[in-house]
Specification:
With 84 residues, this protein is of the alpha+beta class. It has a single domain, classed as 2-Layer Sandwich (TATA-Binding Protein). Helices cover 35% and strands 43% of the residues. A 5-stranded antiparallel β-sheet has the order 1-5-4-3-2, with helices on one face. The radius of gyration is 12 Å and the shape is globular.
């Protein structure tokens, strides 16, 4: 299991949309649940990815938690940070 967090000035809807695009395309995951602050893919507690957002001042904190998709979680964070 892995948990990675980072901060960005990108708006929350854009962050969630990028997470959906990345994990459905690159990991073959399906959305199990989505709200204004998070998106959950897979089957908890076995194989899943959860992306959770919280607002801090002018930035969003992004927390990516994964089990069995650690590689994809790391790549998502690397690619996301590379675009910003």
């Amino acid at each position: 299991m892995i948990t990675i967090s980072f901060k960005t000035k990108k708006d929350q809807e854009s962050i969630l949309n990028e997470a959906v695009e990345y994990f459905t395309k690159n990991a073959g995951l399906k959305i199990a649940e989505r709200s204004h602050c998070c998106v959950f893919f897979g089957d908890y507690p076995s194989n899943y990815v959860r992306v959770t957002l919280s607002q801090e001042d002018e930035k969003s904190e992004v927390v990516v938690e994964s089990r069995e998709f650690e590689y994809q979680a790391k790549r998502f964070v690397e690619e996301f940070k590379g675009k910003v």
